[in-house]
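Subject: design request, 425 residues
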């Protein structure tokens, strides 16, 4: 079995990620209604539902844009999966123009309405609720399964709180609501009853962590983020009496600030947000059109330059060919004598041809050799031998013709000088 060793990229400091499940059948309608209300009230600058061509079959996707304090713009995208027996899973990614401040409103609250029994506020892996206390299952096997699922969840921060004694009404309130808004839909609180501590720590034993009696622990996740040490994120005592649990809240904030890789599927969501963003302002549309114009201009200039280079090369090739043909034609013309030959002088020897003509004949023979390569081997061998004899005969005839011509030319020079051959000659 092939195991991927690819390390996911780190989560940028400007990015906020969360996911959950909507248990009702009307998730898209709930989103449309709440987004419209937020826009009408001025909470959102704008929102849009992406067309079906931009989403997978059965999925829905929404974009929204708003501003947080100091006029920092936030862009967010929510994907809602197809309905299944357990509901519709949603995943949300938001990115701000500067590093994320946990005091800013939760992006999930911008898309979903928060009501007493809202159907969307369930965590995907364990099925537990945000902003609520979630008692661990009474069955030991279910308890271990819940904790191990929480340890492998890379999207959510899981906090386990052990109740040293059964708390009153004030102690049963969720501690997550005391955290900054940016953590309200990223943290799930588990409550262990007084008698469940041993079972809880037995389930956590393989991960090298344990919950202190009457205390709390931020689970490390798998793999644990860099800088996680169980001792730094374990709280010895938690008073569930309605007082402010400063130490617990501080441990959750410090854990959320640790550098961590993007969760599984988070990189794809972030890529869609950055590269497929469609909810543009007029200024952004103008800037995008200018970028497109600049890109097309560069492409056109590159094509024009390539065309000019090709044309220049073609013209040079035509000029070279014309020069070659002109030189070949001049070299192939017969040479006329500059002065009339003396009476009785021998005619000028006939040359066998210029180098251009010899080259042409050689190329012609090569062409004929190539065209005849499909002929039978015996015929081809005979043809090659005949060409060899022909070339040899041409060379012999040329030498034979040249010798008398040279002799006649020598005799003509002697006659003009008036000298006679000596006896020895």
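Subject: RE: design request

Done. Sequence follows.
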């Amino acid at each position: 079995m092939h195991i991927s060793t690819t390390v996911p990229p780190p989560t940028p400091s400007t990015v906020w990620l969360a996911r959950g499940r909507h248990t009702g059948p009307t998730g898209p309608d709930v989103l449309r209604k709440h987004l419209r209300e937020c826009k009408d009230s001025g909470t959102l600058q704008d929102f849009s539902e992406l067309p079906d061509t931009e989403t997978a079959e059965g999925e829905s996707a929404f974009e929204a844009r708003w501003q947080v304090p100091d006029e920092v713009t936030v862009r967010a995208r929510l994907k809602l999966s197809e309905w299944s027996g357990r509901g519709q899973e949603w995943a949300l990614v938001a990115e701000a123009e500067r590093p994320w401040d946990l005091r800013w409103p939760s992006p999930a609250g911008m898309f979903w309405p928060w009501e007493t029994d809202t159907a969307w506020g369930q965590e995907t892996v364990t099925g537990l609720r945000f902003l609520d206390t979630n008692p661990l299952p009474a069955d030991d096997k279910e308890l271990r399964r819940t904790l191990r699922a929480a340890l492998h969840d890379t999207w959510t921060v899981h906090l386990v709180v052990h109740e040293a004694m059964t708390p009153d009404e004030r102690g049963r309130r969720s501690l997550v609501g005391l955290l900054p808004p940016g953590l309200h839909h990223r943290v799930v609180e588990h409550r262990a009853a007084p008698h469940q501590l041993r079972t809880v720590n037995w389930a956590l034993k393989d991960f090298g962590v344990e919950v202190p009696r009457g205390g709390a622990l931020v689970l490390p996740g798998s793999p644990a983020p860099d800088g996680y040490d169980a001792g730094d994120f374990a709280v010895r005592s938690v008073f569930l009496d309605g007082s402010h649990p400063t130490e617990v809240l501080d441990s959750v904030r410090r854990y959320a600030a640790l550098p961590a890789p993007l969760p599984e599927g988070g990189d794809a969501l972030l890529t869609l947000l950055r590269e497929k963003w469609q909810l543009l302002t007029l200024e952004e549309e103008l800037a995008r059109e200018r970028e497109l114009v600049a890109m097309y201009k560069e492409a056109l200039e590159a094509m024009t330059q390539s065309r000019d280079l090709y044309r220049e090369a073609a013209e040079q090739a035509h000029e070279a060919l014309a020069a070659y043909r002109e030189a070949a034609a001049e070299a192939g013309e017969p040479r006329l004598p500059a002065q009339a030959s003396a009476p009785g002088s021998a005619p000028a020897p006939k040359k066998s041809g210029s180098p251009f003509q010899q080259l042409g004949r050689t190329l012609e023979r090569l062409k004929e050799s190539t065209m005849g390569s499909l002929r039978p081997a015996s015929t081809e061998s005979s043809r090659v031998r005949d060409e060899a004899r022909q070339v040899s005969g041409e060379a012999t005839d040329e030498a034979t013709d040249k010798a008398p011509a040279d002799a006649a030319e020598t005799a003509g020079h002697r006659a003009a000088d008036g000298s006679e051959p000596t006896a020895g000659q």
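The chain has a mean pLDDT of 81.
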